[in-house]
Amino acid sequence: MAALVNVTHGACAEIELDNPPMNVVSRELTVRLREALRAVEADERTRVVVLHGAGDRAFCAGSDIAEFEDLHGRVAEGKLLLEKLVYRQLARLRVPSIAAIEGFALGGGLELALCCDLRVAGEHARLGLPELKLGVVPGSGGTQRLPRVVGSARAKELILLGEIVDAATALSINLVNRVAPAGSALTAAREMAETIAARGPVAVRTAKVLLDQATERTLDDGLALELDAAEMIFSTHDALEGARAFLAKRPPNFSDPEES
């Protein structure tokens, strides 16, 4: 039996969905994902998280439809409340997250990827929210997170038509940030993760919070938050180290007060 979710710790932590053949979201996988997210969050070494699926057929092909019969009349209790909690846990990680997408990212799988800060797709990836074809609606954030990423008009098109788009189309509508050659999405995501991990860790975490708040607040409120954050950052050792390293033409040696 597959482990369902595998975790690799380190500065660039990885979480792998491992539910072959298509890494579908079952209740048990969601429980294991919650445990994995808690583990990487608690590890003070973590500076960025890469989320990917085992194999090359799917990042995650959506919900385990075999569970639907048992959920009739009790889907919130049996599925969606837990998923919303865990997906929110991913979206609210203190460090940036990157989804590496190969193969299919459909339904709950795409909703999971939408919780990540960045998404990179292999050129043969296929993405979509086809729930209406099954007579149900996206229920784990799709109707709310997708419009925030691609805009209302595109989100309505993707959800109401239920069309599955290729990686090039996903890139053109900002559903993914980058497209990599087939089979190399994880490699590209790891390179992005290494770049982020080399930045000032306090500044990275602060920037993530500010960017997430940007869509929830007025411009004036956001600018005030930014000013307070910048004031805090400029009082850290990293601010001095970044400037000194730049002037000395050497790589910076950033420190993280959470690592002690």
TrEMBL record:
Transmembrane feature ranges: none
Enzyme category, top tier: lyase
Keyword list, A-Z: Isomerase, Lyase
CDD domains: crotonase-like
GO biological process: fatty acid beta-oxidation
Reactions catalysed: a 4-saturated-(3S)-3-hydroxyacyl-CoA = a (3E)-enoyl-CoA + H2O; a (3S)-3-hydroxyacyl-CoA = a (2E)-enoyl-CoA + H2O
Entries under InterPro entries matching the protein: ClpP/crotonase-like_dom_sf, Enoyl-CoA_hyd/isom_CS, Enoyl-CoA_hydra/iso, Enoyl-CoA_hydra_C
The protein's Enzyme Commission number: 4.2.1.17
Alphabetized GO MF terms: enoyl-CoA hydratase activity; isomerase activity
Family, similarity comment: Belongs to the enoyl-CoA hydratase/isomerase family.
PANTHER family: ENOYL-COA HYDRATASE, MITOCHONDRIAL, ENOYL-COA HYDRATASE-RELATED
The protein's name: enoyl-CoA hydratase
Native source species: Actinomadura rudentiformis
